[in-house]
Write a structure and sequence with these properties.
single chain; alpha/beta; Aspartate Aminotransferase, domain 2; Aspartate Aminotransferase, domain 1
């Protein structure tokens, strides 16, 4: 074999049958082959297991899918290149022209955009309600056939808590599929509920380090099977190296999540006692209007603390600019703490009435609590709150 050929066909290294890697290798390859055309055709007909092309599957991405499905308490999973990719591909795969989707004001901005603008262009209708309006949900589902009920809990950014049991019961009775964006709650929560499809941004808690993007759709095997071809055709495939980084991040998922939750509760308690703060939104506080529901549904109350400052938008900007340990950046769930203002989050397509129902004010701040020392974070927050401008009423 000439050297110009050898560099494209390097020597194979096969492990002995009793010799196993402790950490699974990265299968950084797009293509796989079988030993014959006949076996390739058997695979393509679904008559044998294996891998052929990355857009369909890959051992590294498949390991991640199986792990995530088990964590969420479901049969199967499809991973995507981003969290929004998981949302968009699931919505496109699960709906058809003429369908109706029930969604909520207190949803992630891209989710609202995809349902109202993108699906709307293809003849999918929607109804937009508040997550607290269970009577409206019941009326809507009774009034017209509905394909999907799409919601999240806790909501972004003010951590309203959806009554998951009630929503899933109403959806099931109406013949609709329930789709829960479970990103804020994490993979270990809400699995006991009768949710049909779970959505996650792997960019957040799964990775934990803010340096890789990914998304996941988790459901029972027949639903995943029905979506698989669509996902392959839509092409939002997760790269194997990104899958490996997310698998690595998941090794510390529970340690990180629980430590961040403990700090979040302490920070929420301190903020609630501060005169510059008008209101704190954290489901772990007894003052949260849905604290009892959160305690019933959740094992941990989450790492997101939102609050409203006296003084509105000017006070919020000054506060965020004064912080030294909180990066002024989007996303959440990573090891470093983050801060965003209402103006940075945006919900500009909502009219005044919908904005009021969303509970986002001009002075709303969202904190994502990281793994820094709690006392350092509290000192940083106290310093920013101590600025006279932050305390204007």
């Amino acid at each position: 074999m000439k050297k110009t050929t050898r560099v494209n066909h390097p020597p194979a290294v096969d492990l002995p049958p009793d010799n196993h890697p402790v950490v699974a290798p990265i299968y950084q390859t797009v293509k796989f082959q079988f030993d014959s055309v006949e076996e390739t055709e058997r695979y393509l007909r679904g008559e044998r297991r294996g891998f052929y092309y990355l857009r369909s599957s890959n051992p590294t991405t498949r390991q991640l899918e199986l792990l995530l499905a088990e964590l969420q308490g479901r049969d199967d999973c499809l991973v995507t290149a981003s969290g929004v990719g998981a949302i968009s591909q699931a919505l496109l795969s699960l709906t058809s022209q003429g369908d109706h989707v029930l969604c909520f004001i207190e949803s992630y901005n891209p989710t609202r955009y995809l349902i109202r603008r993108v699906l709307g262009r293809f003849g999918v209708a929607h109804t937009l309600l508040s997550i607290e309006d269970l009577a409206g949900v019941e009326r809507t589902l009774a009034a017209r056939p509905t394909r999907l009920v799409v919601f999240e809990s806790p909501t972004n950014p003010v951590t309203k808590i959806a009554d998951i049991g009630a929503l899933t019961r109403l959806a099931r009775a109406a013949g609709a599929l329930s789709v829960l964006d479970n990103t804020f709650a994490g993979f270990h929560q809400h699995g006991s509920f009768d949710v049909d499809v779970y959505l996650h941004s792997l960019t957040k808690y799964a990775s934990g380090t803010g340096d890789v993007m990914g998304g996941a759709v988790i459901a029972r095997s027949e639903l995943i099977g029905a979506m698989r071809n669509d996902f392959g055709a839509l092409g939002g495939t997760l790269d194997p190296h990104a899958a490996f980084l997310i698998l690595r991040g998941l090794k510390t998922y529970f340690v990180r999540y629980r430590a961040q939750c403990a700090s979040a509760l302490a920070i929420a308690q301190r903020l609630a006692a501060h005169p510059a703060v008008a209101r704190v939104h954290y489901p772990g506080l007894p003052t949260h209007p849905q604290h009892a529901l959160a305690a019933e549904q959740m094992q941990d109350f989450g790492t997101i603390v939102s609050f409203d400052l006296h003084g509105g938008a000017p006070a919020a900007r000054r506060f965020a600019d004064t912080l030294q340990l909180f990066a002024r950046s989007a996303s959440l769930g990573s090891t470093e703490s983050l801060v965003v203002t209402a103006q940075m989050m945006g919900a500009r397509e909502l009219d005044a009435d919908l904005q009021r129902l969303s509970a986002i004010t001009a002075g709303t701040i969202r904190l994502s609590i990281g793994l820094e020392d709690l006392e350092d974070l509290l000192t940083d927050l106290e310093r920013a709150l101590a600025r006279p401008e932050s305390q204007q009423r």
